[in-house]
Amino acid sequence: MAREKKTCVECGHKVKSLFIQYSPGNFRLMKCENCEEVADEYVECELLIIFIDLILHKTKAYRHLLFNVFNQESVNIQHLLWKLVLAYLLLDTYRSLLLRRTNDESNVSMSFVLESLEVLVNVLSANFAFVLSFALAAKMMLVMSRGKEILLGVLISSYVKIFLFAMPVWEFPVSVIFIVDMLVLTSNAVALKVMTESATSRCLAVCFIAHSIRFLVDQISGPMSLKHLGYVM
User: Fold this and answer.
1) Residue 40 reports pLDDT greater than 50
2) Is residue 104 pLDDT above 90, yes or no?
3) 89-96: which pairs have CB atoms within 8 A and are 24 or more residues apart?
């Protein structure tokens, strides 16, 4: 099986290798033949630097993560995909619980089991609508052929959701949840741009449509699930 090529983080051109290692700890970064820049400077960067550049939405940081770190040669894509789906749903469930805890109009007398069922229905229905609308919008507006890799990129670029864990510690207002949602949207758009090489405006439009439909379904599914359970008069 042929060795999978890496990607230059500066221009997106395929390169044979990112570095040549002479001995442990002694290596030389390779340059891209297309742009003549160092193919991937993040190879020798600390994780904190990469994380900061991801937060700043630098496309080269996304290329490093999506093409040179998470690729078929270094990880099992199928297993990673299932793990990320589970993590994504858990973070989304946590987000829904945070909104409930900070909503003065929530039904505090509802049992934990019924509340958990409602949150589960909301999360699953909203994310099903998100995936479906994202796929349809991307098919109409973008040229893409690697559906599994695109889904993987969207899940990885939703890392911003981990900031929700800081809310109970620092007692942030509920508006921070929606700020995180906007950062997830823009991060998804950058990942989509990197993976499809499409215009930024089109990628933003696809992500905006998908996230908007997800938000609407999330708002609708909550009251509907309560009505079915007989808790809304």
Assistant:
1) yes
2) no
3) 89/123, 89/124, 89/127, 91/158, 91/161, 91/162, 91/164, 92/123, 92/126, 92/127, 92/161, 93/119, 93/120, 93/123, 94/164, 94/165, 95/161, 95/164, 95/177, 95/180, 96/122, 96/123, 96/218
